[in-house]
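Can anyone check this?
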Amino acid sequence: MMNALNILPSYTEYFHLTSATIALNSGIVWIGAIVGSIALAKVPDIIGRKPSIFYAALIAILGSGIQAASQNIAMFLVARFILGLGIGGTYVAVPLLIAETLPTKYRSLGLGAFTDLYYVGGLLSAGEGSSHIALHISLERKLTSISKASLTAPPRWLRPGPGACLPSCRSFLLSYR
C-alpha cells in the first residue's frame, strides 16, 4: 500500500517527501517487525500464546491509529515502527499457536496457510488502497483546474479504506475466542 500511497501528489506534498523519506516510509515497518520479533520472542512462553497475540494486535492497532492521525513525517515514521512492532509480535506468537492447536495431520497445511495467506491479505489490502488512490489522483487532476483553495475535505490518504484494519482486528478478536 505504501507504494501506491507514495505516488499520491497530495501525500508527498503534505509531508514534503524526498526519495530517502519515501524509502524510509516503506522500510520502517519491516525494521519494526524485526525488532518486535526479536524483543517479543519469549513473551508467548511467559504469558501464553493467545494473550501475546492479543497484545501484539493492540500494538498494531495503536500504530495504525497513530499513523492515520499523523501530522508530520516524524509522527508517521514512529507510527509505522510501532505498527511493525505489533506485526513482529504476531510473527512470533501465531505460528506457535497454530502448531500447538492443530492436529499433526493438518499442522503443515495450517502453518503454510498462515505464511502464504498473510501476504495474500497484504496484496488484497494493497489492491483496495491502490484503487482508492487511483480514483483520488484522477479526481485531484480534474479538480486542480477548478481551484485547490476550494478543497476543504481532508486528503483521501488520511481516511483509510474499510479493510485497512482488518488483519489487526481479526488477530485481536481471535486471541480471546
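Reply from J.R.: I decoded it. Confidence is low (pLDDT under 50) at residues 146-154.
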